[in-house]
Specification:
The chain is mainly beta. Helices cover 4% and strands 55% of the residues.
Length: 888
């Protein structure tokens, strides 16, 4: 590419000399002829090139310098053209033809033909037309970050004004095309008959909006007058008298338009309208609301914040005043529901020794069941809300000191019982080995002796939801501080046996106790709560011995299974805890009997044990692995697969118990099958003691009565199967469901947040990978199946208490058509469980979805169609029929 700088060319000077009139005529004629030839040399020196080879700028143009005037061009011109470049010095024009490029000042221009008039400071650019009448090489104009692709353009480099025909440009997510546009300066552009759309097909979009007059301020705003909507080039009655679009890369405050609609229970409504505040680059705020003509209303505030390498999070508060029915008529009800959610996470780079985090989901127990703006069945069936706000810090000294402070919340949405910890404090000192060598190597029983110190302080509150934030919630508060000092060691005996032993000293401080008094008037025991400091101390001893046994069976080399490995870990443990009867008192009942009780019952840490605990525990854990030939390997390599992840037995024998000394035998197991697609977990419990004729447990072994070694009192099995056409293709998680305590999968249906319907069955890359055929023969799909079976036989009832299957999946029915479903069947109750059907259609720039719950108390449906682009997300239509909140 060549540079054109007329201010640096060597000038030609025409020198005129006045001579005496008496000079000979031939001298005068010669002088006259010389001047004419010189002028022709200066003004007729046009250049023309047939190729794009390098040419010296001094050979192209010579311009007379004047020290009193500025040069005609105010910068260097970089240009190139495939066919020719022509400089007309008389007209002060530079013409570039075929694949022309011009770089001048702050703009770049590419086109079929470019004309630079450096006397008028104007640039002309246009396309080329071949013999068949087909246009090509349309102008491409870029100034700063603004790009325009018109049919032709006329631009003044000094004033910034321009006239553009059939301009094409992209502003954010929006493609813009206008018949005629005028640029007043470098910041304002006026359009006539402007067509804008978010469709990827710029020339033939499936929809667009036609604005008869429009104004664009780059990076600030796009304002239109009367605007109509066209679908497939067909005008629709949809239109607005004006519209405003912020055109900035930064967050911009503005109004969020509400969505109108009608609800059978609450009348007409305006939903999800409000205002968005772009407070800074680090945080924002949105205030949204709903209003229904029957008097119901809802308010929501949402904020998101983030600071790189520090922290990020979001906070939202939702409040709903719900009215059902007509005042004065049966069925009228008014309820208030609220929900507070706060999620905060600290970047690992922010601090090495401290961390703050929060996960809050607190509110009314019936919020997710009766919300008018959220349908979340998964969270409803979970029946619990939980929260945690914690701060932890490590003091980098030797030994390390760790402490943490937390505020927790747990809420049962069925019983409406709320448990709070305000606050919980924990501190600990790292392990100390007083007898270890300075080099850190520990051998033997004495060098491995170590102890720790732990401190725990809690203030727990358990209350009904109706008493929250009232004085009654503190009536049953429990507070206390616990100190723990564990001492332990470990060593080996006989080379293969590992032994661990330890003792633990515990001291608990409480600030309230309970005294029991028998009331002779009511013949009942009265519990008197006493506030004040009290304490008790306990200790225990425990030891265990275990080893690991390996067994491998090798098959022939030609066999698909090369070897099976069995890993057995048997262990025997012993524990001793003395009786702490000194912390027990007595009261006399109406029969004159003395009943023992502890004043520490129902306190924070509970009462110390009464009676000696002296038991032996036995446990055996098993794992089974196989080495098989890898079918995918061409070199005959092998791989390991798990046959049994666990296969464990455990029981214990209490030496001091008067009866039922042997505890039931517990058994658990688990494995994965079908190339890790099927997860299987099972368990059972066996009681060695027999039952009498009334099916009551008696202190006699079943084997002594001829009823077998032990009877199975309970068992369970769960199966989880996940498969897809892409072999475990990624399954999207519903953020709203997981955040509110629901499942990650869709076994209990997908959540529908009516205030934000951006979640789609389609993944982001699906549109790029869509097949062009009319019929998508590959049928991408995914499937999740969960099965649960529970058997109970405590009193020989031989009852199956749980027997249900849940199914969820998605399938591409055709190109750009997806279907999702969730359903199940309870064989024990003989009924269909929660069922949901989901359909979605990808309409290029639009998205259409429909979901329905056809049966049950959550019976509802929801239809939505809208533009995908966030810039035009307010252009949508949704219709819904929500579940009746009185049934939930």
């Amino acid at each position: 590419m060549r540079k054109f700088d007329p201010s640096k060319t060597e000038p030609f000077f025409t020198k005129i000399v006045f001579i005496d009139l008496s000079t000979k005529i031939n001298h005068i004629v010669f002088l006259f002829f010389f001047l004419i030839v010189s002028n022709l040399e200066v003004y007729g020196q046009n250049t023309s090139r047939k190729d794009s080879t390098q040419v010296n700028v001094n050979e192209l143009v010579t311009i007379k310098k004047d020290s009193t005037k500025k040069p005609l061009l105010e910068g260097i011109v970089n240009r190139k053209a495939k066919d020719y470049e022509r400089l007309d010095q008389r007209k002060k024009r530079l013409t570039l033809y075929n694949e022309a490029e011009l770089h001048y000042q702050d703009f770049i221009l590419k086109s079929g033909v470019i004309v630079l008039d450096y006397e008028k400071n104007e640039v002309y650019a246009g396309r080329l037309k071949d013999s068949a009448g087909v246009y090509s090489q349309f102008p491409y104009f870029k100034q700063g970050e603004n790009v325009i692709e018109p049919d032709s353009i006329r631009f003044n480099t000094k004033t910034g004004k321009a006239q553009i025909w059939n301009t094409r440009s992209k502003q954010g997510e929006m493609f813009l095309k206008s018949e005629i546009s005028k640029r007043e300066n470098d910041s304002v552009i006026f359009f006539k008959n402007a067509r804008f759309t978010t469709s990827e097909n710029k020339e033939n979009p499936e929809y667009y909006f036609l604005a008869y007059k429009a104004k664009l301020v780059p990076k600030k705003k796009f304002v239109t007058g009367l605007t109509h909507m066209f679908i497939a080039d067909v005008p629709t009655p949809i239109g607005v008298p004006f519209s405003f679009f912020p055109m900035t890369n930064k967050n911009t405050s503005g109004v969020i338009m509400p969505a109108p609609g009608q609800n059978n229970e609450r009348g007409y409504f305006l939903q999800n309208g409000g205002y968005y505040f772009a407070l800074s680059d680090y945080y924002d705020l949105a205030i949204l609301g709903d209003y229904y003509t029957n008097g119901s209303y809802a308010l929501r505030t949402e904020t998101t914040y983030a600071k790189r390498y520090k922290f990020s999070g979001n906070f939202q508060v939702r409040y709903e005043n719900q009215v059902l029915g007509e005042k004065g008529f049966p069925g009228y009800a008014r309820t208030n529901q609220y929900n507070i959610q706060w999620s905060h996470s600290q970047d690992t780079k922010a601090s090495a020794n401290s961390r703050f985090s929060s996960s809050v989901n607190f509110g009314s127990s019936k919020y997710f069941r009766q919300s008018i703006n959220l349908v979340n069945v998964g969270s409803n069936l979970n029946n619990t809300l939980s929260s945690s706000i914690s701060y932890s810090k490590t003091v980098p000294i030797v030994p390390l000191v760790n402490f943490s402070v937390a505020v927790t919340h747990n809420q049962n949405t069925n019983t409406e019982i709320v448990n709070l910890t305000l606050p919980s404090f924990n501190a600990s000192v790292d392990r100390i080995f007083p007898f270890a060598k300075q080099d850190g190597i520990k051998k033997g029983i004495f060098q491995n002796i170590n102890f720790q110190y732990g401190l725990r302080g809690d203030n727990k509150i358990s209350t009904k939801e109706e008493f929250l934030f009232k004085s009654q919630m503190f009536d049953t508060a429990l507070a206390g501080i616990g100190h723990t000092i564990p001492i332990s060691t470990n060593f080996k005996i006989f080379k293969y046996f590992s032994v661990s032993a330890g003792t633990s000293f515990v001291e608990n401080w409480v600030f309230n106790t309970n005294e029991k008094i028998f009331n002779t008037t009511t013949n009942q025991v009265d519990i008197v709560r006493k506030n004040g400091f009290d304490s008790y101390r306990t200790y225990n001893f425990s030891t265990s011995i275990g080893t690991t046994i390996y067994g491998t069976y090798t098959f022939k080399e030609t066999n698909k299974i090369q070897a099976i490995r069995h890993l057995i870990r048997p262990s025997v443990s012993y524990g001793y805890t003395p009786s702490f009867g000194q912390y027990y008192d007595q009261y006399k009942d109406n029969s004159g009997n003395y009943i023992s009780y502890s004043r520490f019952e129902n306190t924070l840490f509970g009462a110390p044990g009464l009676g000696v605990a002296n038991s032996i525990g036995i446990g055996i854990s098993n794992t089974l692995e196989a080495k098989v030939l890898d079918a995918a390997s061409k070199k005959g390599e092998t791989k390991k697969i798990s046959l049994l992840n666990q296969f464990n037995f455990s029981t214990s024998y209490n030496l001091t118990a008067e009866e039922f000394k042997l505890e039931p035998i517990s058994f658990i197991g688990g494995t994965t099958l079908l190339d890790n697609k099927l997860g299987v977990n099972f368990g059972a419990r066996f009681d060695p003691y027999d039952l009498d004729s009334n099916n009551q447990r008696i202190n006699e072994f079943s084997i002594n009565n001829g009823n077998g070694l032990a009877r199975m009192t309970s068992s369970n099995i769960t199966l989880n199967y996940t498969v897809s056409s892409a072999q475990f293709g990624g399954k999207k998680e519903s953020k709203q469901t997981v955040q509110n305590g629901g499942r990650k999968d869709d076994l209990f249906g997908a959540a529908v947040d009516l205030s934000n319907q951006d979640e789609s069955l389609f993944k982001k890359d699906d549109a790029k990978n869509q097949q062009s055929e009319l019929f998508n023969y590959k049928f991408p799909w995914d499937l999740q199946i969960a099965y649960s079976l529970t058997y109970s036989n405590n009193a020989s009832q031989r009852e199956i208490t749980t027997n249900s299957v849940m199914v969820s999946g998605n399938i591409d029915m055709a190109i750009k058509w997806k279907m999702g479903f969730s359903s199940g069947y309870d064989f024990a109750q003989k009924g269909i469980s929660f069922t949901q059907l989901r359909f979605e259609r990808d309409l290029e720039s639009w998205r259409m979805s429909f979901s329905i719950v056809p049966i049950g108390v959550y019976q509802s449906w929801n239809f939505f169609i809208g533009i995908k682009s966030s810039m035009l997300s307010d252009i949508k239509w949704d219709k819904r029929n929500l579940p009746d909140p009185r049934l939930r």
